[in-house]
Design a protein that fits this description.
- The protein has 5 helices and 5 strands, in the order H-H-E-E-H-E-E-E-H-H.
- By secondary structure, it is an alpha+beta fold.
- It has one domain (6-193): Maf protein, CATH 3.90.950.
């Protein structure tokens, strides 16, 4: 897994645990190089991360890039979701900035969506792309249990629901989330095309 985000790593392991494969972080596989996420799309960033880790390890690699796209903010924070409040900003600062920007936006105008793009890269550097998207809205305040490095979970409410992602169990979130949907597509592909 081409990620250093502990929250994503936990979710990815949970989402793939029934495949019966060993899953390692890039760091555990010996890749310590910082990978700059300077692409203009989620897919560009995910491909860049997965390709670099696959090249260095010679292993099948999966990378994810996700973003929160808020309608009232013209699609911000979008592809820059993790860096929107500044490089190395804490999760608290990221959410604080979002709630500040949304302060004057009324309840009916707080639509947003989360999107996740996964890229699978083979040892021969072939790649496949899978995506998942979930519509929802931004709450007026934080609610729930903070997950490591997933700050927007505290304020994102999936469409038709009343709870933020952070108020859900890991299983509840994974069943409906953008990342969960993308991983379902990846798993279906792996079962049909790669695994015996």
């Amino acid at each position: 897994m081409a990620t250093k985000n502990p929250g994503k790593m936990i979710e990815m392991q949970n989402l793939l645990e029934d495949l019966g494969v060993e899953i390692k972080s890039a760091e555990a596989a010996g890749v310590t190089q910082e990978i700059s996420e300077d692409g203009t799309t989620l897919a560009e960033n995910a491909l860049k991360k997965a390709r670099l880790v696959a090249e260095q390890t010679g292993e099948w690699t999966v990378a994810d890039d996700s973003g929160l796209f808020v309608e009232a903010l013209g699609g911000e924070p979008g592809v820059r979701s993790a860096r929107w409040a500044g490089e190395n900003a804490s999760g608290e600062k990221i959410v604080e900035k979002l709630l500040q920007e949304m302060k004057k936006i009324p309840a009916g105008k707080r639509q947003a969506y989360f999107e996740s793009v996964l890229v699978l890269v083979s040892p021969e550097l072939r790649n496949w792309v899978f995506s998942g998207k979930i519509e929802g809205s931004i709450a007026g305040k934080t609610a729930g249990q903070d997950r490591p490095s997933l700050p927007y979970d505290l304020v994102f409410i999936p469409q038709g629901g009343k709870k933020t992602f952070a108020e859900m169990t890991d299983q509840e979130k994974n069943d409906i989330s953008h990342r969960g949907l993308a991983f379902k597509k990846l798993k279906d592909f792996l079962r049909l095309n790669i695994m015996d």
